[in-house]
Amino acid sequence: MWRHEVGLFGRRTRDAAPADELAELEDVGEETVATREHGPWDVSEVPELGDRIDVGALWLPRREGMELRMELDKASRVVTAAALALHGSSLQLQVFAAPRSEGIWDEIRAEIAESVTRQGGTVDDLPGPFGRELLARLPVRTKEGRTGHRPARFLGYDGPRWFLRGVISGRAAVDPEKARELEAVFGDVVVVRGDRPRVPRELLPLSLPGQARPEEPIAPTAQAPDLLRRGPEITEVH
Question: pTM of the prediction?
C-alpha cells in the first residue's frame, strides 16, 4: 500500500523566435502558448518519472492514502491492469496500442455499452472531463440474494498510438465531489508506449513496481470486460 504525498507539476515551452515576435507574444500573454491543462500524457510530454510509480507502460501519480493493486491474468500470470483505491473508491487502468491515424474510443465505447446491456445492466453515454464517457449500472447479487446494481464510470482517452481506459467504481462513480480525486489521477497518468510495432488493441505490457518491463507482446484484449468478476490481484505495500 502506498501512502504518500505528491504535487502536480506541468511545464510550458516556447520555440525560439525573433525579438519582434517575442515582444508581440509578451503583449498578448501566455494564453498564446498552446498547452493542455491535464493529460493523460504521453512520455514525450512528460519525459521524467518525477514522483510517479513506474509499472511498465504506465507511470502512475502518487496520492496520499492510495493503495495500488496489480491485476493478473489467471492463466498466464501476466499483469493486465493497475487498480488504484483511494478514499473508498477505485480506478482501474489499462492501456492498449492504437492505430497511428485514428482513435478507438468511440468504437470501444459502443462495445462496452452493448456488453453492459447484454449482462442485464443499463448505460448512458455522457460528456465528461476527458470527452465522452459511459455511466453504467451493472447487475450484482446482494448478500440477501436480491439483484442490485453497481455503478461504474468508463473513461477513455486516445493518445498518440495508444488508448488509455479507466473504470471508476465506488462512491466516485456517482458523486462528482468524490470523483475529482480519481479524475485528477487519470489526468496525470503518463503512458510509455515504446516504438515497437503493435497490433491495434494489443494490451501494452505492465509490470510490478520495481520489476523490469516485460518484453513479450500480449494478445489484443481491448474489449468490454466481464465486470461482474474480478481477477487475481497482488497488493504492493510501500
Answer: 0.77
